[in-house]
């Protein structure tokens, strides 16, 4: 027993089956069991006398087969009754998983610590699996080590067992935290969170990765709605996925490797034979329907062509609807190189088979014949089996089949045309040998020598057909003597020498010249005389006709080629002349009429470097338009000289996108300088990026300002969504601050414009900001407007944490698994649940479940109207930043004009005027002292010292007050243009809107002056009439 155990399991790591350790005495060395890591069946340890079980590296027992159909681990009766020795300690300190079955540990007199093990944690289905582990009270056992907390495999410190996983883990773990959970396919523990870090696999191991199932032979194609062959298909061998089955097994159609031949039909074939097939995977309890299907697929090849098996034919199960073995009708030889218990032909207990019908079988090279217990089988007793054997020591054992007398009674006997050698079944085609003659496989009583449509001759006892050129004889004489056209008694058509032919040779190519023959009266062919020319015109006609055909074909080809050439030219001409007016697939998209301004290098002046990256450097600079005296602060982005053509193309793509976008919350492209190093010129944002701004002023920023920023970013992204542009890199670092109340989105280096029919953009390689990206972007590089919503949520989180780093301290490679497990960024301290729920909605796994930017803008607008309700912070907003102060301190940037103020008049093609610095007007002061309002001081002047009748003042003052009020309302948007309300702000007025406001302004002003004149004239007239007028009023 010990030798067998050592032979099978020494240097073994995975036991494909059961591990049974029984009847081993105490002196044996069992250290070879330490190599075992996995057992697929059950582990049985019984009737042994050793004191220690050294299965120290066993991690998993799968329990595919169970002891007594209940237990995956059974340990009992391991002691000697008349001695003081037996099993004292289980060395299973790494056993962490029993997938199926229970545990039975009982009647081990000296065993300790088994009852301290937390078996409910080791057994996967502990609630339904039986656990029999009684407490050992017969001996005094040492206590577990202090560090083991009462659970151990032995008394030492390294033999502890404990549960350390978090409750959220659905399996094992490699640490106490939620992020330390093993992959769901792991069994027995792991060293990391991936499916490649498992110690063992719950289902299958595919090249080191634990998977639910091996790659299947066929996969479903959702495009074609069909199953297609899978080039990555693998076979299942135990719990492993293998590309090829091991040599001791055979591959089967269900993508499994079986370890032995099957009981349905066992055939071993010569592998070099081109049509020979091997059937290996139908189990003994296979349904008859499946069996018939496999026979139809595999065995009918033998039925048509044949196969020579070099092994044995073993039939122990057969479908009910098949009463013979006619599928093997072409089987000619059974080689017998491999035998089944010395048998080469075995037909056992087949109650449906009535005849063998192996009519082509003529040799059994080796092995015996065993045909028994076939209750319906007849004809077996007629076969001369010894005539099929090659060796003298071959035997035949036939018994307990149907009684030959019953077969005779039911006329299940050989055909009368069969010889005494016997037959395989009913009919003249099942004879081992014919009594008279044979025609192919069928026995006949005579050959068609003198009658019949097809005449024959007798070649011994075989009937052979005469050649088709032989004439059938009608006088009871033979038609031919042998096969071939040269053995005919009389020819059907002509005779050319000894051969019968259909016609005499006429112009056949000979060794030297063409051969011409003619037929005489007796239909014999003779050669023409050498001087005969009767065949010459035929040759000439043939040559001329052949040349004519060649010419016609050549002309046809030339005409066809010419027509194709003309069609191509006409098509090209129509294309160039734009005859195709209507587009084939009109998109309905409006043309992009954005203007791209080309700047000269002499117009730009660089001041200092603001930052640099992998592809370029950003400078602070001044733009002085040619022929003008204005100075405009700008940011100049310059591409590095060492970059390649691809970087130039991406740089110009960014210029295209920025030039196409015009919105108050998007950084505007002022122009492009096509110098040797391409330069993009944009607005200069004096306060820098929003990330640095909130970090610098985190103690001064109030809730109103934060919510305003959320609204402005959402409106900018909503504009991008309307223009079908995916930003792909939205973050607080890519939002610039123009003023504390006005921010703009920038950095369109990764942005992509979608076509009309596109819903997503699939990116290629390259670095990406993983911690700001949605899960579908990380896994599939698929970018949509909804993936920008995810980035928006992270950006808002950065603002609410005043520049906090998302997922700080977590490696980038662990982010996908973290998101799949449901973890998200925590709720910022200043945020209420309302604001945090908006962020959480942005981080939904399903992209369609995330809100749209329009909804986000409306939601934050609602919150901005009551900021203290949604953000728990009340601080003033900062006026300027360190970055802004550094810009103001530059002497070169004095007396500057903002880029937007400069570009507005240029939109109307107005010639540039001399620049006068604009002074900012205090809106409060304008409201009190503006001349556009009617002043009540006018009524208190001496001019109104005498009372005026109300009937006179009312019709005069009403239009005056109305015109003044309307004029002040028209002027209000221009006076208060520096104030920003994120929920109502629109894009700056352009085109006809500004022209309309200016015309209306001057019209109302004229109206105002006319009515003042009328009023003054009326007052003077009234005063003169009532002698209340004093000329001194107009004296100095």
TrEMBL record:
Q: Which residues bind ATP?
A: 610-618, 637
Q: What class of enzyme is it?
A: transferase
Q: How does it sit in the membrane?
A: Single-pass type I membrane protein
Subcellular location per UniProt equals: Cell membrane; Nucleus
Q: Where are the transmembrane segments?
A: 289-315, 327-348, 538-561, 995-1024
Start and end residues of each Protein kinase domain = 604-871
Matching entries from InterPro entries are given as: Egfr_JX_dom, Furin-like_Cys-rich_dom, Furin_repeat, GF_recep_IV, Growth_fac_rcpt_cys_sf, Kinase-like_dom_sf, Prot_kinase_dom, Protein_kinase_ATP_BS
Q: Which E.C. number(s) belong to this protein?
A: 2.7.10.1
- Family the entry assigns: Belongs to the protein kinase superfamily. Tyr protein kinase family. EGF receptor subfamily.
Q: In its UniProt entry, what is this protein called?
A: Receptor protein-tyrosine kinase
The organism is Oncorhynchus mykiss (Rainbow trout)
């Amino acid at each position: 027993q010990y030798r067998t155990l050592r032979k099978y399991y020494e240097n073994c790591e995975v036991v494909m089956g059961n591990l049974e350790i029984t009847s081993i005495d105490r002196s044996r060395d069992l250290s070879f069991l330490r190599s075992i890591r996995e057992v697929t069946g059950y582990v049985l340890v019984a009737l042994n006398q050793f004191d220690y079980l050294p299965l120290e590296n066993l991690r998993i027992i799968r329990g595919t087969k169970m002891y007594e159909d209940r237990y995956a681990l059974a340990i009992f009766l391991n002691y000697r009754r008349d001695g003081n020795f037996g099993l004292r300690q289980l060395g299973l300190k790494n056993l962490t998983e029993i997938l199926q079955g229970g545990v039975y540990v009982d009647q081990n007199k000296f065993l300790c610590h088994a009852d301290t093990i937390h078996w409910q944690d080791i057994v996967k289905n502990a609630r339904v699996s039986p656990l029999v582990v009684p407490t050992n009270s017969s001996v005094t056992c040492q206590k577990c080590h202090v560090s083991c907390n009462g659970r151990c495999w032995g008394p030492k410190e390294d033999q502890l067992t404990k549960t350390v996983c978090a409750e959220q883990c659905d399996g094992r773990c490699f640490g106490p935290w939620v992020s330390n959970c093993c992959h769901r396919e792991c069994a027995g523990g792991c060293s990391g969170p991936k499916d490649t870090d498992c110690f063992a696999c719950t289902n299958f191991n595919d090249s080191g990765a634990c998977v639910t199932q091996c790659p299947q032979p066929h996969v479903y194609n959702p495009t074609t709605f069909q199953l297609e062959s899978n080039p990555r298909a693998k076979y299942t061998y135990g719990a492993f996925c293998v590309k090829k089955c091991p040599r001791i097994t055979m591959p089967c159609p269900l993508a499994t490797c079986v370890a032995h031949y099957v009981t349905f039909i066992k055939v071993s074939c010569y592998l070099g034979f081109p049509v020979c097939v091997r059937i290996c995977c139908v189990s003994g309890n296979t349904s008859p329907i499946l069996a018939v299907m496999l026979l139809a697929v595999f065995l009918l090849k033998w039925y048509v062509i044949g196969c020579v098996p070099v092994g044995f034919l073993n039939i122990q199960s057969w479908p009910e609807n098949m009463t013979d073995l006619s599928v093997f009708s072409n089987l000619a030889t059974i080689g017998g190189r491999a035998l089944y218990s010395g048998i080469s032909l075995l037909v056992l207990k087949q109650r449906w088979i009535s005849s063998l019908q192996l009519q082509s079988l003529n040799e059994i090279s080796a092995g015996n014949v065993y045909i028994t217990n076939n209750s319906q089988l007849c004809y077996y007793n007629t076969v001369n089996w010894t005539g099929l054997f090659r060796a003298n020591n071959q035997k035949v054992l036939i018994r307990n089949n149907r009684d030959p007398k019953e077969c005779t009674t039911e006329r299940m006997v050989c055909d009368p045309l069969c010889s005494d050698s016997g037959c395989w079944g009913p009919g003249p085609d099942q004879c081992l040998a014919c009594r008279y003659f044979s025609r192919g496989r069928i026995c006949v009583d005579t050959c068609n020598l003198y009658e019949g449509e097809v005449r024959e001759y007798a070649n011994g006892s075989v009937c052979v057909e005469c050649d088709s050129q032989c004439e059938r004889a009608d006088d009871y004489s033979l038609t031919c003597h042998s096969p071939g056209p040269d053995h005919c008694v009389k020819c059907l058509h002509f005779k050319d020498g000894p051969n019968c032919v259909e016609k005499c040779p006429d112009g056949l190519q000979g060794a030297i010249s063409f051969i011409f023959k003619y037929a005489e009266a007796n239909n014999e062919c003779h050669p023409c005389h050498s001087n005969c020319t009767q065949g010459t015109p035929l040759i000439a006609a043939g040559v001329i006709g052949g040349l004519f055909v060649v010419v016609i074909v050549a002309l046809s080809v030339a005409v066809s080629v010419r027509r194709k050439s003309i069609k191509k030219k006409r098509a090209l001409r129509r294309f160039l002349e734009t005859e195709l007016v209507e587009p084939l697939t009109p998109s309905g998209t409006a043309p992009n009429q954005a203007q791209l301004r080309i700047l000269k290098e002499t117009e730009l002046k660089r001041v200092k470097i603001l930052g640099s990256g992998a592809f370029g450097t950003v400078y602070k600079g001044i733009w002085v338009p040619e022929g003008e005296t204005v100075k405009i602060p700008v940011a100049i982005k310059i591409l590095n000289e060492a970059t390649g053509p691809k970087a130039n193309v991406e740089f110009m793509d960014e210029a295209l996108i920025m030039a196409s976008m015009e919105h108050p919350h998007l950084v505007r492209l002022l122009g492009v300088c096509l110098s040797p190093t391409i330069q993009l010129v944009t607005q200069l944002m004096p306060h820098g990026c929003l990330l640095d701004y909130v970090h610098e002023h985190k103690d001064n920023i109030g809730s109103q300002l934060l919510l305003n920023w959320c609204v402005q970013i959402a409106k900018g992204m909503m504009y991008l969504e309307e223009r079908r542009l995916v930003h792909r890199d939205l973050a607080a670092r890519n939002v610039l601050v123009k003023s504390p109340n006005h921010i703009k989105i920038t950095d369109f280096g990764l942005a992509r414009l979608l076509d009309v029919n596109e819903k997503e953009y699939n990116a290629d390689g390259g670095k990406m900001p993983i911690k700001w990206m949605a899960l579908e972007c990380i896994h599939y590089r698929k970018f949509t407007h909804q993936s920008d919503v995810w980035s928006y949520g992270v950006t808002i989180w950065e603002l609410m944490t005043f520049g906090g780093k998302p997922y700080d301290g977590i490696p980038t490679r662990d982010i996908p698994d973290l998101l799949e497990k449901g973890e998200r960024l925590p709720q910022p301290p200043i945020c209420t649940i309302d604001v945090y729920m908006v962020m959480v909605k942005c981080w939904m796994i399903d992209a369609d479940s995330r809100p749209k930017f329009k909804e986000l803008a409306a939601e934050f607008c609602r919150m901005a109207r009551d900021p203290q309700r949604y953000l728990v912070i009340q601080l003033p907003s900062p006026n300027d930043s360190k970055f802004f102060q550094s810009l103001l301190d530059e002497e070169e940037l004095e007396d500057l004009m903002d880029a937007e103020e400069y570009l507005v008049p240029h939109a109307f093609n107005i010639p540039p005027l001399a620049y006068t610095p604009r002074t900012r007007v205090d809106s409060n002061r304008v409201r009190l002292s503006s001349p556009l309002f009617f002043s009540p001081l006018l009524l208190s002047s001496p001019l109104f010292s005498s009372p005026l009748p109300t009937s006179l003042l009312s019709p005069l003052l009403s239009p005056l007050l109305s015109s003044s009020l309307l004029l002040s309302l028209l002027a209000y948007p221009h006076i208060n243009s520096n104030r920003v309300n994120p929920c109502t702000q629109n894009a700056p007025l352009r085109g006809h809107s500004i022209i309309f406001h200016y015309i209306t302004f001057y019209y109302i002003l004229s109206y105002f002056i006319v009515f003042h004149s009328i009023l003054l004239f009326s007052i003077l007239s009234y005063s003169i009439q009532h002698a209340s007028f004093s000329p001194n009023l107009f004296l100095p």
